[in-house]
Amino acid sequence: MWSRLTEVFGSRFTREYGTHPNDSWRDVIARLSNEQIKRGLIALAEEGSEHPPNLPKFTKVCQHVHQMDVPKLEAPEYTLRDAQIDAYNAGVPRDLIPGKSMDELHQLELKARHGGFRGLEQ
Fold it and tell me: Between 32 and which of 18, 26, 36, 108 could a Cys-Cys bridge form, CB atoms 3.0 to 4.6 Å apart?
């Protein structure tokens, strides 16, 4: 990692921080994962700064959560049917639940009594 920083920043890096990491750098590097260090080095190279990072900046760049690291979660579609079911379960009076006949509401009631109905076919 030290040689990579030297490659990116040249003699400016070794002039400021030496040819080998000191104890503070070693302690921080030991707490970072290989993936964090790799991403940090890539980010610094892409940043194009002429000045080598100090230890706090290096740590921050390595620990930065990249957008590609965050999994994209897709929420299931919330339908009118789900809203009607939730309203029914919450005790909303039947006449205030739109779009349901008495027969349909009775079916909801039966399904709710027998273990719920989310995900069940109509």
Answer: 36
**Residue type for position 42:** I
* Same-domain pairing of 54 and 86: no
- Please tell me whether residues 61 and 115 are part of one structural domain: no
Q: What distance in Å separates the CA atoms of residue 120 and residue 92, rounded to the nearest whole number?
A: 21
Query: pLDDT grade, residue 8 (50/70/90)?
Result: confident
Which two tokens mark 36? 């964090």
Q: What is the residue-averaged pLDDT of the chain?
A: 79
94: containing domain? 74-122
- Based on the fold, state whether residues 61 and 79 are members of the same structural domain: no
- What spatial distance separates the first Cα and last Cα of the chain, rounded to whole Å? 59
**Does residue 21 contact residue 2 with C-beta atoms inside 8 Å?**
yes
